[in-house]
TrEMBL record:
Residue intervals of the FAD-binding FR-type domain: 32-137
Molecular function GO terms recorded: oxidoreductase activity
CDD domains for the chain: FNR_like
Disordered: region residues: 1-31, 210-234
Gene3D superfamilies: Nucleotide-binding domain of ferredoxin-NADP reductase (FNR) module, Translation factors
Descriptive protein name: FAD-binding FR-type domain-containing protein
Gene source species: Spirochaeta lutea
Start-end of Basic and acidic residues biased regions: 13-25
InterPro entries: FAD-bd_FR_type, FNR_nucleotide-bd, MRET, Riboflavin_synthase-like_b-brl
Length: 277
């Protein structure tokens, strides 16, 4: 069961060690592209996996505006900006939440991950450069979606699923989450009881991909933009099929992509987000 740490600042001396900008935590620190956000909460998900909630300033800031599925550059607590101290972290929240939620496994023991062990609510983290193209932008209405996540690769997919529900988008979707322990599972089951969800280990991937419960990959004829009304000239159509959104390690993506191609899924219907980069 996940546990949420106290959202008030930690009273121990460690809370004094976080970098707090002169503007009190909201707005821009120097340099101007670097932004400092307050950690409003930390949630223990399972084992050595945690969610961090970073409070967004109430005033609109284009540099901190994101669309579901994107990621942010996150600087290790108290560290200067350098290649070893910065990682890309996908955002699990949606813009309407008013915060950035990221999830991280600290199990690797890397210096970057270890720096988060002493982080407490009320301290501050530095971020910059929200970007990424792993999104639903430009997808035609009613396009069926299959989300396939490997381990913590569920993070941006959580944002996409919540976005569909929040905006009531007309996209039938199903989820395959491949992991030993499934991050966000209780939240997903509670939020999306009507959507097909398959939780499996790597040994169950093939049967999951062949599940009849997932959105069908049947083509649908839809009028193209500018199509003349019936009876007024030649009527053309575009064909829409299921789009597959894959997120995980490079090896996971290569394996799943190969399995989808073997099943006749066209390459243009497969979108990937590589957690190794």
């Amino acid at each position: 069961m996940s546990a949420l740490l106290n959202t008030s600042p930690d009273p121990t001396p460690d809370s004094k060690k976080s970098h707090v900008p002169k503007d009190g935590g909201h707005g821009n620190a120097h340099p101007p592209w670097l932004h400092t956000l307050k950690v409003s909460a930390i949630r223990h998900e399972f084992d050595d996996t945690w969610s961090y909630f970073l409070e967004l300033p109430p005033e609109k800031n284009p540099a901190l505006t994101f669309i579901p599925g994107q990621f942010i550059h996150l600087v290790a607590p108290g560290a200067p900006v350098s290649k070893p101290t910065v990682r890309h972290m996908s955002i699990a929240s949606i813009p309407e939440d008013g915060h950035l939620r990221i999830a991280m496994s600290l199990a690797s023991g890397s210096p970057y991950k270890q720096a988060f062990r002493s982080l407490r609510p009320g301290q501050y983290l530095q971020v910059f450069g929200i970007t990424g193209s792993f999104s639903l932008a430009s997808l035609p209405e009613k396009t069926p979606l299959v989300f396939i996540a490997g381990g913590i690769g569920i993070t941006p997919i959580m944002s996409l699923m919540r976005h569909i529900a929040d905006k009531q988008l007309n996209h039938p979707w199903g989820l395959i989450h491949v992991a030993n322990t499934h991050l966000f599972r209780s939240e997903i089951d509670q939020l999306f009881p009507e959507n097909p969800r398959i939780y499996c280990s790597r040994h169950g991937i093939d049967s999951a991909l062949d599940s009849p419960g997932l959105p069908a990959r049947e083509a649908e004829e839809r009028p193209q933009i500018g199509t003349p009304p019936p009876g007024q000239g030649h009527r053309t159509f575009e064909v829409q099929s299921t789009q597959y959104f894959l997120c995980g390690s490079g090896g996971f993506l290569a394996s799943i992509t190969r399995k989808l191609l073997d099943r006749g899924i066209p390459p243009e219907s497969i979108r990937t987000e590589d957690f190794d980069h």
